[in-house]
Amino acid sequence: MAGNSDLDIDILEKIAGTIKQLSIESIQKASSGHPGIL
């Protein structure tokens, strides 16, 4: 199980980074192009 934990953490970090990037992009789009959403 110890070998799998490193892989799981790496995958979770990649997913978290992707979600963070998408959040930043959506916030930038919302604030620049669609202020009504905020």
3D structure, described in words:
By secondary structure, the protein is mostly helical. Helices cover 84% and strands 0% of the residues. The protein contains 1 helix and no strands. The mean pLDDT is 82.
Share of helical residues: over 70%
- SSE order in H/E notation? H
Q: What fraction strand?
A: under 5%
Mean pLDDT: 82
The number of E-state strands comes to: 0
What coarse outline follows from CA principal-axis ratios? Answer: rod-shaped
The poorly predicted ranges are none
CA radius of gyration is: 16 Å
Strand pairing plus helix content: what structural class? mainly alpha
Task: Tell me briefly what this model is.
This is Transketolase. With 38 residues, the chain is mostly helical. Helices cover 84% and strands 0% of the residues.
List keywords for this structure.
single chain; mainly alpha; Transketolase
How are the secondary structure elements laid out?
Elements (H helix, E strand, L loop, with lengths): L1 H32 L5
